[in-house]
Amino acid sequence: MARKQGSYADTTGPRVRDAALRLIAQHGFAAVSMRQIAGEVGVQAGALYNYIPDKQSLLFELLDSHMSEVMEAAAQARLSGTPLQRLEGFTRFHIRFHLPRRDAVFLSYMELRNLAPENFGRIAAKRRAYEDRLEMILRDGVADGSFVVDDTRITTLALIAQLTGITNWYDPAGRLTLREIETIYCALVRKSVAA
Fold this sequence. Notes:
Layout: H1 9-27, H2 34-41, H3 55-77, H4 83-98, H5 102-110, H6 117-143, H7 152-164, H8 166-169, H9 178-192
């Protein structure tokens, strides 16, 4: 297959990542070949190596990019107020950030196991830093008596799983608006911490 006209590093590189994200989310990391990704982009399989060294590096880049975006957006969210206000702010932020990124969320949870140990450790550290943001809110709420939580770490993981699960079922054409769903989730989260 000849190089597709207009195939340049500044456009082809992102197209490679977008195609890989979509294909891996649909079929799984093990089932997707570099040849399939190349075919989706419209370049020869060998040309992919101009943009990414190997499939493992590609998966790491996809997961690392997602986690970096999460961390940057979370830092800009600037949650403030009481622990309960910060918890609601985190809930709404998490839903709004993750919903339009279903494929990236899927990869971040389902394909993490396919990373080499050193890459796994780097992504796990970023994930832990994000989780720590929520855990600090819970700890502050326990300290001031506004939350009753048996274990802040377990509660953090459970809440993030609950919030992230919305990407599996949410339908923009459904009977409730996103804002209504966020409000229901905020109530569920409050109940989870006995607020």
